């Protein structure tokens, strides 16, 4: 999860997020090397005593600094496109979760299972336990099975919200009157936190999302208890 | 066990990220930096021109790091994919062992 002064991506909990991290490392190394090259060229200017007042063009160097960046961009674009299409692959989800954004809380529905529904409000700081996470913990977490394809349908009841879980690489806008769908796969148990990612009013920063990923049999037990209660 | 004899790799944290855990990172920079220094020194020995040798050394570092990184990441990616395919195949073999599905798959592959 995110801690203070967190600069990088969170540890992945999904194969797609893992691939996003790999691509991020790849692109960042290329960018760092280009920055080092430009820094070196600028530094060398201090030691350059050549002057040519009549310099107009240089065909060879212009060819080099056109073709070389094009080749470098190709090495960034190809993995990027591979990942883009990988993110859009169709899977067969085993669970569907509906998420509705409100001002300022989320409500969730598990329509596969006799309409299990609940609201999820942030726990205010003055009611937070000593071991709780300020502005992140909620009263009712989303319980989802691990190692299963999950489909999520996101919408909103009033203004645009955005449902986000950085550890899963998921960010989906919830727009009133529209259903947005995405799939994800959680490959380890644990708690995964996110926050609303579209400005939605005064308490936009105070409507977090928490997923509790559990083994399938625990999920079945929880959903049975929820249906019965 | 072989795993107990291995020493854990030293962590190298930059801006909160342990870069020693990034596949191919360490080797890319080791080969790039050492290759750049080596080629730069050789260029200076051959030409006795410090500026030119510095440019050649830096160019070798730049090209060496990027080329090694691209090749290493590609091979790592293909090996990882094959490893995942193998893991999935082993999982399915354990799942279908002794069942009708396994017999049908054996007939198909025979």
What does this structure look like?
The complex is a heterodimer of chains A (229) and B (110). Chain A has 229 residues and is an alpha+beta fold. Chain A contains three helices and ten strands. Chain A has helices at residues 15-44, 59-87, 216-228; strands at 95-102, 105-110, 116-120, 142-145, 149-156, 161-165, 170-174, 180-185, 190-195, 208-214. A five-stranded mixed beta sheet of chain A has the order 3-2-1-5-8. In chain A, strands 4-10-9 form a three-stranded mixed beta sheet, covered by helices on one side. Chain B is mostly helical. Chain B has one domain (19-109). In chain B, 76% of the residues lie in helices and 4% in strands. Chain B has helices at residues 2-5, 25-47, 50-96, 100-109, and strands at 13-14, 17-18. Chain B has a two-stranded antiparallel sheet with strand order 1-2. In chain B, α2 (25-47) packs antiparallel against α3. The radius of gyration of chain B is 23 Å and the shape is elongated. Chain A binds chain B through residues 5-8, 22, 25-26, 29-30, 33, 36-37, 40, 44, 47, 72, 75, and chain B through 15-17, 22, 25, 28, 51, 54-55, 58, 62, 65-66, 69-70, 73, 77.
Topology:
The complex is a heterodimer of chains A (229) and B (110).
Chain A: H1 15-44, H2 59-87, E1 95-102, E2 105-110, E3 116-120, E4 142-145, E5 149-156, E6 161-165, E7 170-174, E8 180-185, E9 190-195, E10 208-214, H3 216-228
Helix pairs in contact in A: 1-2
Chain B: H1 2-5, E1 13-14, E2 17-18, H2 25-47, H3 50-96, H4 100-109
Antiparallel strand pairs in B: 1-2
Helix pairs in contact in B: 2-3
What would you give as the CATH superfamily of the largest domain in chain A? Answer: Cupredoxins -  blue copper proteins
The proportion of residues in beta strands of chain B is under 5%
Largest interface: A-B, 17 and 17 residues
Order of helices and strands of chain A: HHEEEEEEEEEEH
Strand order of the largest sheet of chain B: 1-2
The CATH architecture category of the largest domain in chain A equals: Sandwich
